[in-house]
Amino acid sequence: MESTNRHLEGPGEISYDYKYDTLVFKMNNRNYKHSFEFQNFIADIDDKNFITGIRILDASKIFDTNKLVLKGIIKGGFKSRSEHNMVTITFKFITKIRNRIFPILSEKENFTQQITENAPIKMPDSLVEAPLVPVVV
């Protein structure tokens, strides 16, 4: 059994495509290897088998919010944990609407999605953290 001491932390980017309703979180300076899709999520895997990016399709439906709220995101971050080939992804982001800044979820809540489907590759146990970063425009 692999240990959970594999840990990656670093700066990332967040962007939102209003037309296609796609929210993207990704870590900077990672070597992309491949992706796998589950439900409305696409996870990007790097050459060290860390999940270093997430694309959320139909994001306004997933977060049950207006697309304008997502368009106003000014900061965001994500955390992915892989344990026993099960992946848990947690998102946190802040939006600005009419010059008012507020978290899309409450201060104490994050959006968490647990993927119970097996990944197409053996995912080593690991933790990836990309803290809140400004939005890329």
CA-based shape: globular
Quickly count the helices.
Answer: 2
Residue fraction in strands: over 45%
In oligomeric terms, what are we looking at?
A: single chain
Question: What Rg do the Cα atoms give?
Answer: 15 Å
* Helix share bin: under 10%
Order of helical and strand elements: EEEEEEHHEEEEE
Task: Provide the domain count.
Answer: 1
**Segments where pLDDT lies below 50 for 5+ residues?**
none
Strand tally, please? 11
What separation lies between the terminal Cα atoms?
A: 42 Å
SSE-based structural type: mainly beta
Average pLDDT level: 80
Strands, helices and their partners?
Elements: E1 7-9, E2 12-17, E3 22-27, E4 32-38, E5 41-46, E6 51-57, H1 59-62, H2 67-71, E7 73-83, E8 86-97, E9 100-103, E10 111-115, E11 126-134
Parallel strand pairs: 1-11
Antiparallel strand pairs: 2-3, 3-6, 4-5, 5-6, 7-8, 7-11, 8-9, 8-10
Output the keywords.
mainly beta; 7% helix; six-stranded mixed beta sheet; 2 helices
Short description:
It contains 2 helices and 11 strands; from the N terminus they run E-E-E-E-E-E-H-H-E-E-E-E-E. It is mainly β and 137 residues long.
